[in-house]
Inverse folding.
């Protein structure tokens, strides 16, 4: 039988680009399909901060961070909490990914021209024991150029494949079915959507103008997760995280809808760990949105005081930046789906970073001058724009006015000024000494022992109610949808498996559609900086495996 290509790749995000690039290197002919327009090539990765998880990197060593493969694997396994029979392949993928992150990952990217910001970030600090959740050391390496800088070499490699006649790019092709014409799945059918020049990230038309049917020796699914489909998020919401939120904002565009997962399942694929997901608790509504219900995540330093909807301080160790899903579980059991940061201008100027390539024009534009200007600014420009225009921000000179502003943003006036003042004053008293019983203050001081945090990420300890540090700021935080941690079960060759554990012949998967590898490489929780790397590692793996299989 004459096929249209050796391999069909479904999804032109980072995993799909990495897979296609590897297939091109092997001389295979590829058709790359995506339901969105060509200007959306790169998918979610384009919008990312560009954070990557490396182990014992040159950047870490320059900052005197002592990291190792053993420590990273300990952190990964303690964070993932694998405890199900179906975690067999996810566990193997986790071991393989840590090997990659501690081995050739950085050098592989460096050879392609990817460079990294010299200061390493410390996300998901945990706060439990050594075998529990969290990164024991800073491992969050920011790509110089953020998301666009990371996808660029893979776009370049794919376009080189187009020039060589090895790759056909077929955008506005929405897959509706996978089927067999012989023993293996070799046929992809779908609809052609009308052409669109819509800006990247905005909702594109779903007007159907035609149909298609294509065949190949292998099909690779790299179509992403479910974060843009709030109904599907709620349908899969786990009981362990409490009730599903009534209100969520979207950290991904609407086309991240999970359609392809259901199509693959209908063709015989096994979908596992549906209830494992990664949503952020520090979401703010974008004052200048790109997609519908567009939310931005605050990447906070450790100093903001965190209160629930009623003004109760969140318990230890649920400090900013320590345990995302532990905080989510706590919030959803309060009966409300929002919380508050209370801080001051001194803290926001040093500690607030905003996730997203468009929120970090200095790093995205690779401008050393602008990075220096950002470090010297009282409040960085993108953050100041949210202070001025963001609907979730209250900025006032005194606490009484701040509380009135907080209560004006919610359905019920739940914050009591006297109670909130007691909490803040009590915390402020703990600042007088270099030692304290307040574990958040201890964490702040500990963070500043790391040079990177001291330089650019953690404000010097001070009283929040000190007028010299003002004005006071309150930020209403929403639940922000983002990543799907479960997915299509795959073996270490990225072959999709069936309910019986046998390969679904002809079908492979990578990226978020495969839970970043195996059907859930992160287990229950992520160490952060591992999503982009998961797209890359699983995309590279599937491209090489499929190239060998069809050779």
């Amino acid at each position: 039988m004459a096929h249209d290509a050796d391999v069909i790749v479904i999804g032109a995000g980072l995993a799909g680009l990495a897979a296609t690039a590897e297939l091109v290197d092997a001389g295979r002919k590829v058709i790359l399909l995506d339901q969105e327009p060509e200007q959306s090539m790169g998918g979610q990765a384009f919008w990312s901060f560009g954070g990557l998880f490396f182990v014992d990197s040159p950047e870490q060593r320059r900052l005197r961070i002592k990291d190792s493969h053993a420590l990273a694997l300990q952190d990964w396994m303690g964070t993932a909490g694998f405890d199900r029979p179906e975690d067999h392949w996810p566990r193997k993928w986790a071991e393989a990914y840590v090997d990659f992150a501690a081995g050739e990952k950085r050098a592989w990217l460096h050879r392609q021209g990817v460079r990294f910001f010299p200061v390493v970030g410390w996300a998901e600090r945990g706060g439990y024991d050594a075998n529990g959740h969290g990164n024991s050391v800073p491992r969050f390496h920011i790509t110089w150029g953020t998301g666009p800088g990371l996808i660029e070499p893979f776009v370049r490699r794919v376009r080189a494949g187009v020039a060589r006649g090895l790759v056909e790019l077929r955008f506005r092709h929405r897959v509706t079915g996978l089927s067999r014409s012989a023993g293996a799945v070799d046929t992809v059918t779908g609809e052609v959507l009308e052409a669109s020049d819509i800006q990247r990230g905005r909702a594109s038309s779903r007007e159907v103008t035609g149909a298609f049917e294509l065949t190949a020796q292998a099909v690779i699914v790299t179509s992403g997760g479910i974060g843009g489909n709030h109904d599907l998020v709620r349908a899969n919401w786990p009981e362990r995280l409490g009730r599903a939120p009534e209100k969520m904002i979207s950290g991904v565009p609407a086309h991240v809808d999970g359609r392809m997962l259901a199509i693959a399942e209908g063709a015989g694929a096994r979908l596992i760990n549906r209830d494992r997901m990664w949503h952020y608790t520090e979401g703010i509504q974008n004052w200048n949105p790109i997609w519908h219900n567009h939310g931005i995540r605050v990447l906070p330093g450790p100093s903001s005081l965190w209160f629930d909807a009623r003004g109760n301080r969140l318990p230890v160790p649920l400090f900013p930046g320590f345990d995302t899903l532990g905080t989510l579980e706590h919030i959803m059991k309060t009966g409300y789906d929002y919380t508050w940061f209370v801080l001051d201008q001194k803290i926001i100027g040093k500690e607030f970073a905003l996730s997203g390539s468009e929120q970090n024009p200095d790093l995205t534009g690779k401008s050393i001058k602008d990075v220096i200007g950002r470090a010297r600014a009282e409040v960085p420009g993108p953050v100041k724009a949210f202070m001025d225009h963001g609907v979730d921000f209250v900025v006032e000179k005194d606490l009484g006015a701040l509380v009135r502003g907080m209560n004006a943003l919610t359905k019920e006036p739940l914050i009591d000024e006297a109670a909130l003042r007691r909490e803040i004053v009590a915390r402020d008293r703990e600042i007088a000494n270099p030692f304290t019983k307040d574990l958040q203050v201890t964490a702040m001081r500990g963070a500043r022992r790391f040079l990177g945090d001291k330089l650019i990420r953690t404000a010097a300890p001070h009283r929040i109610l000190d007028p010299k540090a003002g004005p006071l700021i309150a930020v209403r935080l929403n639940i922000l949808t983002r990543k799907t941690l479960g997915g299509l079960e795959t073996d270490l060759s990225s072959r999709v498996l069936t309910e019986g554990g046998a390969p679904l012949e002809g079908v492979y998967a990578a990226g978020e559609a495969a839970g970043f590898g195996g059907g859930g490489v992160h287990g229950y929780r992520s160490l952060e900086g591992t999503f982009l790397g998961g797209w890359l590692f699983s995309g590279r793996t599937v491209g090489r495996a499929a190239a060998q299989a069809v050779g």
The longest helix spans residues 531-549. The chain has two domains: 5-223+485-549, 279-480.
